[in-house]
Each structure stands twice: as C-alpha cells, then as structure tokens.
Write a structure and sequence with these properties.
about 70% helix; 10 helices; mainly alpha; about 270 residues
Amino acid sequence: MAAKPTEAGQVISDIARAEGGTTKGSQSAQMQSELAKQRNFDQVSSDVGSKLDAAPESITKEDAQAVHRAQTRLEGQQPPSGSISSVAQHQAAVNEGATGSSASGTTTASSDIGGAPLDPTTQSQMDRQANYQDAASKVGGKLVNEPGNVTKEEADLLHSREQRAFGVTEKGGLASQAQHQVAENEGATSTLSNAMPSDSTMQSQMDRQVNYENAAAEVGSKLANDPGNITKEDADLLHSREHRALGHTEKGGLAAQAQHQVAENTKP
C-alpha cells in the first residue's frame, strides 16, 4: 500500500503544479532541497542522539562529523555551542582521549566529563576543536555578510584548523568555500591552477551537480507525493549521481531514503 504524502510534500507538490513542474532553481525545487536537508539532519541527529543517550562511549569522530555536516548544511552556518553537533564533538574527543589513555596504561574516569581535569590527549583534541569553531565562526560570518573581504590568510587558517581538529578537510565544507571565495576576490583563478580545479574540471563538476539536482528534484517529488511508485532504477540513479556530484552519499540523505523506500515497496 502506497504511503500518503507528507504535509510538506503536499505543499511542494501544489507549488510544483502551479509552476508547471519542478525545475532547477524553481521554488518547489528549493523547497524540496531544504526538506531533504531537514530529513537528513533529523535522521542523523536521531541516530547520534540515541547513541549519546544510551552509549556515549560509542560516539566516534565519524558520528560527530556526520551530524556536524548535516546541521551545517541545514542551517547554513556553524552549529552553536550546546547543539547536538557540539555535544557529539565533545563526546568524541573524550572517547578518543580515553582510548589513547588506555593504550598508554592509564584510564579516564567518567567523572572527568563532569568537571574534573581531563587527560592531556582529550584536552588537546578539545582545544583543537575549540580553535576550529572559533575560526569557523569568524570566517563563516564574513562569508555570509561580507564575502568580498575574506582573505587568503583567513582561509588558510581555517583550512589548517579544520585539518587539525578532524584529520580531514571536508569537500565543499567551510574551509573549501573560503578558499574558493578568496580566489573569486583576488580574481586570480588562473594563477591558482595548482590549488583550484581547471575550467574544464569545474564545468564537469557543475554538470555533475546539475545532474544530481535534476534527479533529486524528480525522485524527491516522488518520495513526497507518490512513494509507493519509487523504483530501484530511481534509487540507483539518484545514488550514482549523488556520489558523482558530492564524492560520497549522505547517511540518511535523499538517495538513502529512496533506497529504503524501494525496500519497503518490494516487501512481500
């Protein structure tokens, strides 16, 4: 039996009909994108929140990165102190510190989280994350309010602190956006060929992004309004295009939701 469209999905469907269909850049496409981001964050935050409640010692750096990425994409800015992203990052740092301490023959008491001194490994990781959050808040604010004033020094600092805090820099993340904005500001894309992709590479990436957005709009509309007719071909196409466009597929994202719906539809 086909599932009924959600209230939000029905609103998007009504707008799409009024627009003559969901097309890239249309109001219904933008609303569908925001709905997908919200669903992704809801799913990831629910998973991580359950682990935080039931088994906080099992929270990993990957858990913290996943919820941080989902919340940042949804809100368009760095998650504030006290958010689930912040809590997960703190817990991951505590857990990594405990693991490091166990390996060196010491242990971290659970009361450390409540205010007793943390072991050096945990404190160091927390300091790195705090340094990143500080830089991200400042540079993120400039990207939103005065992007023309973002400097190379700010972008480099943010890139360095993100690398130190998480061990990686996220493709399309805040540091990447800052570096791209600097190139735009300096008008020197051609002189940054070693750091920035070529025109043909950028065009290819843009094409992949457009292909993904088109598939996401089509499949997302079916998920919202006609989930019972989602096919394996729909889900596989969206999964492939998301991976080609973003370099990965989001846990709980639109492709994952489509694959889950296909499994529901094909149940005997």
